[in-house]
Amino acid sequence: GPTLDELVMLHKRTMQELLRYLQSLPIHIELNVNGRDFYLVHGFPGKTLHDEVWGRPTADTPNPLPGKQVIIGHTPVLNLIPEEKREDYARELIRNQDHLRIMHCPGFIDLDCGSGHRINFKALSCLRLEDMEEFYA
């Protein structure tokens, strides 16, 4: 909603340029780094643009691309914590003055540590594919 609200407020030419730019972008990126295959996608691997942009897995969703390490964003790590444990998990982070961390699930890795959300335990995360080292800001 907020994104659409901002989009329609843009000058028509600016909006058209932005939409053309977005349409020119790949839906996903496949990389090989140091002999390891990666599939980077915003939502989750799928058969449609909608799935790849808006798909939201659960922590136990299997990898649909055997042999490739799937890396996603879009689904905040906090959403992968079981709902009945989520509040305690968040309170523990706050108590320890910590932040969300990249989540390594059996079928994928989730990078969304809440940087776009209004929570005080968020972080901007980065995963260096060469050695899988994690960085946070």
Written description of the protein model:
This protein has 137 residues and is an alpha/beta fold. It contains 5 helices and 7 strands, in the order H-H-E-E-H-E-H-H-E-E-E-E. Helices cover 32% and strands 20% of the residues. A 5-stranded mixed β-sheet has the order 1-2-3-5-4, with no helix packed on it. Strand 4 and strand 5 form a beta hairpin. The chain is globular and about 45 Å long. The chain starts with a helix and ends with a strand.
SSE arrangement, N to C: HHEEHEHHEEEE
Distance from first to last alpha carbon: 27 Å
Global shape: globular
Structural class by sheet pairing and helices: alpha/beta
Low-confidence stretches: none
Task: Report strand %.
Answer: 15-25%
pLDDT average, as an integer?
96
Summarize the structure.
Helices cover 32% and strands 20% of the residues. The protein is an alpha/beta fold and 137 residues long.
Write the layout of secondary structure elements.
Layout: H1 2-9, H2 12-24, E1 28-33, E2 36-41, H3 49-54, E3 69-72, H4 77-80, H5 83-95, E4 103-104, E5 109-110, E6 125-128, E7 133-136
Parallel strand pairs: 2-3, 3-5
Antiparallel strand pairs: 1-2, 4-5, 6-7
Supply the key terms.
137 residues, globular, five-stranded mixed β-sheet, 7 strands, alpha/beta, two-stranded antiparallel sheet
